[in-house]
Amino acid sequence: MAITTTLAGRATSAELPRLIFGDRWDYDPAPESADPRIAPSYDLFIGGRFVPSAEGESFDSINPADEGVLTRIARANAADVDAAYAAADKAYARVWRKTSPRDRGKHLFRVSRLLQERAREFAVAESMDGGKPIRESRDFDLPMAAAHFFHYAGWADKFAYAVPGARVEPLGVVGQVIPWNFPLLMLAWKLAPALATGNCVVLKPAETTSVTAMKFAEILNEAEIPPGVVNIVTGGGETGRLVVNHPKAAKIAFTGSTEVGREIMRSSAGSGKKLTLELGGKAANIVFADAAMDQAVEGIINGIFFNQGHVCCAGSRLLVQETVAEEIIERLKHRLAVLRVGNPLDKNTDIGAINSRAQLDRIEELVADGEREGAAKYQPACALPERGWYYPPTLFTGVTQSHRIAREEIFGPVLSVLTFRTPEEALAKANNTCYGLSAGVWTEKGSLILKMARGLRAGVVWANTFNQFDPASPFGGYKESGFGREGGLQGIFEYVKTV
Ligand code: NAP
Ligand code: MG
Fold it and tell me: How many angstroms separate the alpha carbon of residue 256 from the centre of ligand 1?
């Protein structure tokens, strides 16, 4: 302790461990050992039962940490998607529509509790399937997913009172398509409000991360959700297209890329389907000179390296006030050097595996473009595992607004640093994007926070924090980040009509 205190006076936090423990200082491996209980194969979940796909097609689900095959998953074709919609239609007309709001709430409370009971097993499965660090799936994805069901379970018998003087009705059967970055959490964001309000669902998880959705199907049965209320069809983009274009869908809820969002808007035009789109982002994280520096640096790190940067609201564009830019960049470099990249199942890992080979290729392409366009790249010395898909934490300085790395979503652990002098310049630069999902502001001045929050064209603005979520808080975009809100009371209105 005495040594630590003496050294702490002279050394930066990055140097401290080496000074105390010498060059061979390192963590012992701390692998999570709970059994994820992943079956050797998964069929489709239709009408409350696991059924093989009509044409018997299936695909491998890969563990991005070591490229090993985790399980085989059925691929749904047109006949399967038809069967899923038929089961949902039947369950809606015969059962769920007539189930009292109070009973719907009870079912959802049960789902939430079962998720909590099996949280550890689900967290391991999520990390193995998607590559995210176990610490994140354990402390964020699972508790948040359970919290969403808990939150909307509470709304089930109350939301009708939120619209006085009108009757509130479910839409019917809804089609939902979700991405690979938060597989179980996105499932919870989609299913909880839809079911609480009395809709039935056909859901398609992403091809690279379907395992926890199939495990969740077991929970639906354990919670005695009536057969057909939720149907899960697995497969790739083609299966997604079948889900969103199905004539029985009264509404489509989609989270994913802006490009596919555009296609869905075109194909659903004139169909009368209600639509919510949660698409990409290129958030500005704005740091003023008076900000609490230690907290701001941690917030920047969390903002971009959380979940390997596979986050639509990631703080991927750092805007720093010019007078403190040098200091912040120096501190960030130290912080990057102590981030631990590697085995997602190790409890000490900060950055896990990149979700797929395709996503790693995209990150590499964008980083190469950043260098080609003249930005300066910094990557700490960092040994990556030999097998699996990994990318080191990366920081670009000398970035201008026209650089591709400042405009396009990289969806990886790559931060672009820009500078500004005045709040007006920060606002202009932050809003100079086709996206508008989230933003962050770091300053000790309350009035400045309010000015920035009003001026930023983003669905969520965090002040002196980043990546904070709560089921009661609505989330969604401006501009090409999409429309519609998920979470809170606002999330309810996306799944009902008033008559
Ligand atoms: P994506 O292609 O839009 O995938 C999202 C979901 O839509 C997946 O379930 C996907 O299935 C499905 N899908 C693909 N093509 C479809 C189509 N034509 N019709 C209906 N559904 C379709 O996104 P991605 O390939 O996962 O990622 C690409 C980029 O999207 C990322 O680099 C990132 O910029 C953005 N993204 C944003 C978010 C977000 O939360 N806003 C999340 C993930 C990705 P398959 O996965 O099985 O192909
Ligand atoms: Mg996988």
Answer: 4
The answer to whether the CB of 279 is under 6 A from ligand 1 is yes
Beta-carbon neighbours within 5 Å of ion ligand 2: 61-62, 129, 208
Q: What is the model's pLDDT at position 164? A: 86
Q: How far is the CA of 452 from the centre of ligand 1 (A)?
A: 31
Q: Whose CA is nearest to atom 44 of ligand 1?
A: 256
How many DSSP H helices and E strands does the chain contain? 18, 20
Mean per-residue pLDDT, 65-87: 98
Instruction: Please say if the pLDDT value at position 23 is more than 70.
Output: no
Q: Is 382 a catalytic residue?
A: no
Q: In angstroms, what is the span from residue 16 Cα to ligand 2's centroid?
A: 37
Strands 68-74 and 58-63: antiparallel
Q: How far is CA 444 from CA 137, 293, 318, 419, in A?
A: 32, 10, 18, 19
Consecutive H or E run containing 379: none
* Residue 206 Cβ < 6 Å to ligand 1: yes
Q: Which of 80, 103, 116 is nearest to 226 (CA)?
A: 103
Domain chopping of the chain, boundaries:
41-279+481-498, 284-471
| Predicted local confidence at residue 1, as pLDDT | 39
Count CB-CB contacts under 10 A for residue 330: 12
Report residue 308: phi and psi, to 5°.
Answer: 60, 20
Cα distance between the two ends of the chain: 68
- What fold, for 284-471? Aldehyde Dehydrogenase; Chain A, domain 2 (3.40.309)
**pTM score, whole prediction:** 0.95
Looking at ligand 1, which residue's alpha carbon is closest to its atom 14?
A: 237
The answer as to CATH 3.40.605.10 being correct for domain 41-279+481-498 is: yes
Summarize pLDDT for 242-288 with one digit per residue, the tens: 999 999 999 999 999 999 999 999 999 999 999 999 999 999 999 99
Within 269-321, residue ranges assigned H as helices are 293-305
Phi, psi of 45 (to 5 degrees): -110, 100
DSSP letter string, 123-170? HHHHHHHH---HHHIIIIIHHHHHHHHHHHHHHTTTGGGGSTTS-EEE
**b (16+ CB within 10 A) / e for 192-230:** bbbbbbbbbbbbbbbbbbbbbbbbbbebbeebebbbbbb
**Considering 32, 200, 207, 312, which one is annotated as catalytic?**
312
Whose atoms come closest to the Cα of 358: which ligand? 1
The atom number, within ligand 1, closest to the CA of 235 reads: 47
Total residues found in the chain within this entry: 499
- 403: which 2 tokens? 């650089």
Q: Are 366 and 414 in contact (CB under 8 A)?
A: yes
Q: How many angstroms is it from 122 CA to the middle of ligand 1?
A: 22
Known catalytic membership, residue 278: yes
